[in-house]
Automatic annotation (TrEMBL), chains A, B:
Residues 89-305 form the AB hydrolase-1 domain. The lineage of its organism: Bacteria, Pseudomonadati, Pseudomonadota, Gammaproteobacteria, Lysobacterales. Residues 1-19 form the signal peptide. Keywords: Signal. It holds the Pfam family Abhydrolase_6. This is AB hydrolase-1 domain-containing protein.
Length: 363, 363
């Protein structure tokens, strides 16, 4: 645990110093056992194709006439360890993030990719459609370099800029924040729950039965993916951000917050019941207020956690199996919005492994 | 070798069929030995930071006032095998591509990532600044879904759409082209040789001495990277696209083609001489015409290959060590622009390994 009074280092002026002297992450190999990988690689699933009318003229190749465009697919980097457990884990990032979320943490420790490979799970790390290496979007977009990192520092509950929360499970060094901010990568097309869930369902059709980990914005389309593909055998959702799926006629009242109003999404009952057929674990971290407050970042999570509890109760009322853990309730303190890469991420992985074992998903 | 008369399958109508039935790439594990990885993860290097004037107000976090923005860095996914050779290989993609270039090939075979890991090289696969998982750009851009894939089919010398070249080293199935087209991912900001070479030089400062593989558009900034960082100990350039670096006063005449005019880039002699201090291998594939022709795609490569020969001669005249191999000259036929992922990519890897051994870069 570190002290909340540590301020973020001055961001300006030490950049050049850091370029020369800071974390040589790759060199920090350890005495850990090696990863023994039976097979690894990448693949692409789902997506759509358009064709421009006319005939392609190889002498005027810059004209779109008669040309095609493939987009809105998902990219996945997979690794299958020797003696892998039967169900792989598909890891799905949140808003403004990519597969990087699950790789090396911002302070240079192992992320969930390596941790779960060591626990003999095959892993599939995705870039969702219109993000990262899956950037070809069927819809035009403009990307502006708008300064927004203090928003994210607060929204991701590292603290209240420029102070970290007391005991925040996030390293306080400049280089860690530098790596963290640079892990963000923009949408190359509008975020669309249908588009991304359709592509990830196509991935599950390709790879077969598996477990889905989602983070934040990935939570909502994660539920839709389980509705679209019965190959989703379980979901572990890290701080699902919004877009909880309810049966038509059972939408709870919207929950206003200082940031926005959190609303459920209604689907027909035959779709909703798919979510009652699989075990689901939802985890939320620390520094989420119990009562409304006027700080948008924190208050947004109060409203989301409340909606998540409504959703758990609704799914379980219909025969589902949703477990929601607010980590401070079991004595785990200081977690940010990035529970799986926080300083205590091995403890969090243990919690997830326990869940997977209890639900017989690890054999 | 496959027959040039095979046309590309109808792109429309079999998409849904393929989604259900086509290549289950991940499941195609083989009898190969496992990869034994001592350490793996990702890191970010280089880039710049801006700060918007004013004071950040946590109650109005969507205002840019007092907020920062980090961008123009490079992302790298690294793997270090057990008993690794001393020099790692940094693999740099071309235009419209990402780290995916070096992973699984479009037809599901192992790419250079796995092939060189098996040969005990550590590998660093990058997304250059303003691309893929390194998407935060300091300059605004608009991304349009413009149909252009028949241009690329020709430009990358798979054939003359919709026919493959006779003996093209590229699988002719629909799903291979589907995977290939979907491997493209857009710029999230303008391509800038200085920006990308500065970031990759920062990566070499972090990781220490290494070998640089470049592809196509990566070639030009690859030369600049070697000028910026003496940690670049050798370059293997696969079909460098343009932007060959000459000393001021020694620029050769521009070479017009049916596509564009290829020009050298002038730098001061003290910069240029850095390129004479390291061994460099340049490889070009097949179906590059000897004489001018009116098809832009192929003619562009005639001009580039000619400029590459000029460049080899200039560097070697100044005491350099550049080897240029036009593969058909040594009897290797059918290679496209993606030499390292073509059907004969193990043969190509052998050629590269031979070069690295001759130059004592593998010990």
């Amino acid at each position: 645990m570190k002290n909340s009074s540590v301020r973020v280092f001055s961001l300006f002026g030490i950049v050049m110093l850091c370029a020369a002297a800071c974390a040589n992450v790759a060199a920090s190999t350890t005495d850990r056992a090696p990863l023994v990988i039976k097979d690894q690689g990448s693949l692409i699933a789902g997506g759509t194709v358009t064709a421009y009318p006319g005939t392609f003229d190889p002498r005027h190749p810059l004209k779109p006439d008669g040309q095609t465009y493939h987009g809105d697919h998902v990219y996945a980097f997979y690794q299958i360890p020797v003696d892998a457990r039967p169900l792989p884990i598909v890891m799905w990032h949140g808003a403004g993030q990519s597969a990087k979320s699950w790789e090396t943490t911002a302070d240079g420790r192992e992320g969930f990719q390596n941790i779960f490979l060591r626990r003999r799970f095959a892993t599939y790390l995705i870039d969702q459609p219109r993000r990262g290496d899956a950037g070809r979007s069927m819809v035009e977009t403009t990307i502006k370099p708008t300064p927004d990192e203090q928003l994210w520092f607060n929204q991701f509950r590292m603290g209240l800029w420029p102070n970290f929360f007391n005991g925040a499970q996030f390293d306080h060094s400049y280089e860690t924040l530098n790596q963290f901010f640079r892990s963000m990568t923009p949408n190359t097309g509008p975020f669309d729950m249908e588009v991304v869930s359709r592509a990830v369902a196509a991935l599950f059709r390709k790879i077969g039965p598996g477990i889905l980990f989602t983070h934040s914005q990935g939570g909502g389309p994660g539920w839709l993916t389980a509705i679209k593909s019965r190959n989703v055998k379980a979901i572990v959702a890290f701080e699902p951000g919004s877009s909880f799926i309810f049966p038509e006629g059972e939408l709870p009242a919207p929950i206003p917050s200082a940031f926005d109003t959190v609303k459920g999404v209604a689907v027909p009952m035959p779709h909703f019941v798919e979510l009652t057929k699989i075990p689901i674990l939802i985890l939320y971290g620390d520094n989420i207020p119990d009562k409304p407050m006027d700080l948008p970042a924190q208050d947004s999570w109060r409203a989301r956690l409340e909606m998540a509890r409504n959703w758990r109760d609704t799914v379980n009322k219909h025969g589902g199996d949703v477990t929601l853990i607010h980590l401070p309730d079991i004595g785990i303190r200081g977690n940010t919005h990035f529970i799986f890469s926080d300083l205590n991420n091995v403890q969090i992985a243990d919690l997830v492994s326990k869940f997977l074992a209890e639900k017989h998903l690890d054999r």
